[in-house]
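Marked as duplicate of an earlier ticket. Keeping the data here for the record.
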Amino acid sequence: MTASTDIQRLRHIYLFLYVLGGFCSLLSISLLGWIAFCIAMEMEPLASIAFLPNMPTPLIFILLLAIMAIGIACWQTGAKYHVRYEQASHRHSIER
């Protein structure tokens, strides 16, 4: 593999991870906002998760925490690949 294709691959990886991390972050914020809205409107207990399939309540909040953890992991891994991309592109520009 040539250096330019390796650089492009690193760029695609970090962009994908940033997009996935951003999506997970937006999903987490919107779900937490919906829960807060339902609490503020004094809706019936667990009304905020009534749209989800029938599953135990602790499992739903574990799922929300998992979405948050995936978002954080994507942002952190994307940042590592971004640094590698910047270093590789800097080395490639020096070699020219």
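See parent ticket for discussion. The CA atoms of residues 40 and 75 lie 31 Å apart.
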